[in-house]
Amino acid sequence: MERLVFVIPLVCWLLAARSPRYRLWVGVALAAIAATQLVVSFLAWTLRDVQYSVEVLLTLAGAGILVAGLIADRRAGGMASRRTALGGALVVLYCVASPLGVLLMLWFWSDYFPSYGAKPVPVPAADRVLPLPDGLVVLADSSWCSESRRGPWCHRVLSIGSTDGTPDSGVADRLLQHLRDSRGLPLELYSSSSDGREWDMCRNTGWWLDRAVETIDLTTRTPGPQHGDSGIGWPEGAPEGSVTVVTIGMSHLQCEA
Fold it and tell me: What is the pTM of this model?
């Protein structure tokens, strides 16, 4: 239902236009923008790296077209009426309110996330890792989010095992190769001990308002009895008994140098 807001500029214009010529061509342009906004909203997950940025640009473009169209329409003359007067007032109101709303949104978000975009942090998508190569399988998939003084962050935790007889000690090596070669994720060894090994990476993703920081950690526990507290930190949310875990994180925090 909230998607009906996309047609507000078109409705305002159809009420305001006096000239049939401008009513048609400006209306077509506004309808095209509304249709694009609908497509972006329905493909929000697919376009998650650009969604907010595109929606804001389309909103500003619509306001600009309304201003130009109203000026050209009034210069062309035509019969004025209560309808066109009401429509003109609504066009002016929308063209003032929408940019102010965008500026207010940017100001509010920049107060919380001055360097790393404005979009609320989503639960990371598993497609950063999936699909897995033949012989590897997701044993468990969970997610969790938390708040910090520098904004929210969310994690997806995937426990990985094998179906082709690959021993637990080899699953991490196969998964690491898959992430590096097939998914283009340059994980580097972060820690290694008798308890296990950990690889990680951090990078900026998204454009403009959709900027975020993505972290990916691959942790493997040495098969056998549980080790002491001196070992590697085991990922929060990982199922008990899991050996190899991939954690995908999204936040507005900075990557450590």
Answer: 0.74
